[in-house]
Amino acid sequence: MTTFSRYVRDTMPLKRYLIEGVVLMLAVSGIQLLLPQFIRTMLDDFIPHSKVREAFIFFILILVAYAIRGFLTVRRNQQMLRFGYGFIYDLRLRLMRQLQLLSSRYYDHTPMGDVMTRMLDDVMNVENMTTNSLLNLVTDLVVVAGVLVMLFSMSVPLTIASLSIMPLYYLNFRHFRPLLRKKNREIQKNYSELSSEFSEAVAGVRVIKSFALEKHKGEKFKSFLDADMEMRISTYTKNAVFQVTGEFLTILGTVLVLFYGGWLVMKSTMSIGEVVAFYTYVGFLYQPLMRFVGMVQVVQRGLASIERIYEVLDTTPNPEEKKDALELESVKGHVEFSNVRFAYEGSEEAAVNDATFSIKPGKTVALVGMSGAGKTTIVNLMMRFYDPINGTIKLDGHDLRDIKIESLRSNCALVLQEGFLFSGTVYDNIRMGRLSATDEEVVAAAKAACANEFIESMPEGYLTLIGEKGRNLSGGQKQLIALARAMLRKAPIVILDEPTSAMDSETEHWVRLSIEQLTKNSSTLIIAHRLSTIQRADEILVMKKGRIAERGRHEELLEQNGYYKKLFHLQFEHRPGKAAHLHI
Hints:
CATH superfamily of the largest domain: ABC transporter type 1, transmembrane domain
Strand order of the largest sheet: 6-7-8-3-9-10
Strand content: 5-15%
Structural class: alpha/beta
Radius of gyration: 35 Å
CATH topology of the largest domain: ABC transporter transmembrane region fold
Number of helices: 20
Number of strands: 10
Mean pLDDT: 83
Number of domains: 3
Largest sheet: 6 strands, mixed
Low-confidence stretches: 574-584
Helix content: 55-70%
């Protein structure tokens, strides 16, 4: 299926608006076609024979007809806009849902600027094509059909003469259409890269300033701007040549009609009124052609954009969910990893290799190890952001691949290293842990997470707007709110990914107490930089290069005199030249 035919198919659920719009267009166009006949009758009958009364009545009838035409035009536009914007509404919704379904693997390889360009700019281009150009295109097709009927009924030879330029119109269109479409596709691709570069520069502005990279990043951004400007100038210049050629052909056709029509009048084959009426109809014919020439750029840009949108919609969510996937009703929280192996796309080395362990209901398993050891990958696999290449991960005896993804994740509470917050109030952010929670439950969760005191000290308390990504809060405060959100969820499985890394020692003390409350009746997997956080874990897994190198309780691992003991002493023994705290 071509992009355009698929686009047409996707608009069919809204065809009732299109059908009514087309019916109204027929009525509007029919009224429009009366004007040349009025001119013809005036010139050939009423004026030569001084029929003032008849001319006045005809004049009133034309005014009434055009008043009706105005009312029908408004209704037609309304229905066509319902059709166009209804399609755009559905397209945006489908795209948003698809972007939420797509896996972490997709976002690992797709710049955020490209995602935003497709969601905003590409949809806007399709909107312009659907709501503006499509409305004019359908209207013009109806008008052209009516005009051709009138022209052939008046003079076949003159009609053939007026249509003789049509092959030239077609050749002009056929030459420029693929060229403009290709150019618009290149513009959108470069614009996505430009957006990604801009987004990255804004997100990393502190690093850029710290390393005095302003000039370097500025030059890189300038190169994208230069390419964008050159591509747009080249494309719009070609479009201008396309339009000028179309205008020239229109003038050629008009002059041809006047010359040949004048010759027919001189031979007494046609009257002056007939030629003037015919000329007016030709104007109705050529005007849509001129608009069509102008619409090509909009349509080509829209088709290039809908093609990019379909690329996203056609991307298969990974991991996929089985059609007969299970809906978990009562989760105990028994998690089992059996010989699990996983490697990120494009990497030959496994991030996790032969991982076997279990988390029994109500127990806590901790992961420690150097950066890149595979700790966060274990969390990603447990949340099913990725599927293992080999081995199985089970929850209460069910393979995660047999469980509905939403059902799995709704039974998990995840707290990341940096507590991500959304724009909105403190209430809004904590309540995202359980949307049905009352204000009292939100406050209770905040108290349990040791967040209530600082929240109440804020200007509006729980109604304080905290800004995008919580930019008005410190790292520790954001993490406390994230913990409160997890508290509110009351999930049977709790996953903590380095939850105290952004906190000072005093805050960490209180947070450790709140974590004990959070994990009291839950199966817990915790990644820790600070070994003090996980000394009471039921089992500690020490990871090295994707493998579990050591396992046991805190005291048992110290007795083994292995890698864990070395890490422990690096953190807790104060030696000259050694830091008292080391991120692991």
